[in-house]
Design brief:
Elements: H1 2-28, E1 40-45, H2 53-64, E2 70-74, E3 85-87, H3 93-96, H4 98-106, E4 111-114, H5 118-128, E5 133-137, E6 149-155, E7 183-187, H6 195-204, E8 211-219, E9 222-225, E10 228-231, E11 240-244, H7 250-258, E12 264-267, H8 276-283, E13 287-291, H9 292-298, E14 305-309, E15 311-315, H10 319-330
Helix pairs in contact: 4-9
């Protein structure tokens, strides 16, 4: 793997030059960004997956839905449809994408839409939904739209300042674009983060207008599945198969080990579309545990029991109160 990264290094330089030049064109006005009447809040990152954008959108919906009429606009990665589409509980992952479907099912009172053209998607939502606020899921690189506020996520174990550009690293955008963010959230932190916090703050070297908050991942101990729900400890000493098609399954594996759950792990790429052969292999497994996102692509395709583990962000210390205060100032 290290050899392949070294071989790919010249390509990463070309990639970095292209994305940085594109950003420069937006910065100086050669390419234009459009603002909309409806306030927009963008959640994104600088790397390829693995920072917890969907759990952050879910947290925002939980906090804001009681007082705001909300809409979510996503690209709908992995869907087979094109153009603008409003996601309903009856949609499939192939029609809407796994993450938008996950959000639509979890928040039936929120309008969730998909469109690769963010300008068109926002225009549709303004005309047909008229929300108070639109959350742009994974919209940091879509500079044709200028959001009112931006939340930038970076994983504690792979800070954007320590990363390198694709394909050698995981950066898909220039590191200096972090300055466009209004709030930076360091995700997937250990729950006992102390002295490392100061070290991370020094590395990020945030702008004066930016706040930096810290969060860890928290998993539900009650699992939901095709045959109801069960507590996680019920799966101790059971023949469990863990199926993941996410960017970074490491934290989930660590959590299950801490809980005493041993499993056979079948790991696939992010947003993996399961083949008939793979589903046939899974069909012989007695108990399947998976993520909520993967469940969107697996449900209805296997005869056995499938259970998914919900994950959420939990802010460390008093950062949740800081986060709420920041949101109040934005609205």
């Amino acid at each position: 793997m290290l050899l392949l990264r070294k071989i790919a290094f010249p390509f990463s330089l070309v990639y970095a030059a292209i994305v940085c030049l594109r950003n420069r064109f937006y910065d100086i006005g050669l390419l234009s960004s459009r603002t909309f009447n409806t306030p927009t809040l963008c959640v994104g990152n600088l790397s390829v997956g693995g920072t917890g954008k969907t759990p952050m959108i879910a947290l925002l919906l939980t906090l804001l839905e009681p007082t705001q009429k909300l809409a979510v606009l996503s690209r709908g990665y992995g869907r087979t449809t094109r153009g603008y589409r409003l996601v309903t509980p009856g949609s499939t992952a192939l029609e809407a994408g796994d993450e938008p479907l996950q959000l639509a099912l979890a928040f039936p009172g929120v309008s969730v839409a998909v469109d690769g053209n963010r300008r068109r998607g926002i225009s549709h939502l303004e005309a047909n939904v008229n929300p108070d606020l639109i959350l742009l899921d994974d919209g940091f690189q879509h500079r044709k739209v200028k959001p009112r506020r931006t939340i930038l996520l970076t994983a504690c174990h792979n800070l954007y300042c320590d990363d390198w550009y694709l394909p050698t690293g995981t950066l898909r955008d220039c590191r200096d674009q972090a300055k466009r963010a209004d709030l930076i959230v360091v995700t997937k932190c250990p729950s006992d983060l102390h002295e490392e916090r100061r070290l991370i703050l020094g590395k990020l070297n945030a702008e004066r207008h930016q706040q930096v908050l810290f969060a860890t991942l928290e998993y539900d101990l009650q699992l939901t599945g095709t045959s109801g729900s069960r507590p996680l400890h019920w799966f101790t000493n059971k023949d469990v198969t863990l199926v993941t098609g996410i960017a970074d399954p490491g934290p989930l594996l660590g959590f299950l080990q801490q809980q005493g759950i041993s499993s056979f792990h079948m790991n696939f790429g992010d947003h993996h579309r399961f083949t008939k052969a793979e589903l046939s292999r899974l069909a012989g497994r007695k108990y399947i545990l998976t993520t909520e996102k993967d469940f969107m692509r697996l449900k209805g395709k296997l005869p056995g029991e499938i259970f998914y583990i919900r994950v959420r962000h939990r802010f460390l210390g008093n950062d949740l109160e800081k986060f709420k205060k920041w949101l109040e100032g934005m609205l």
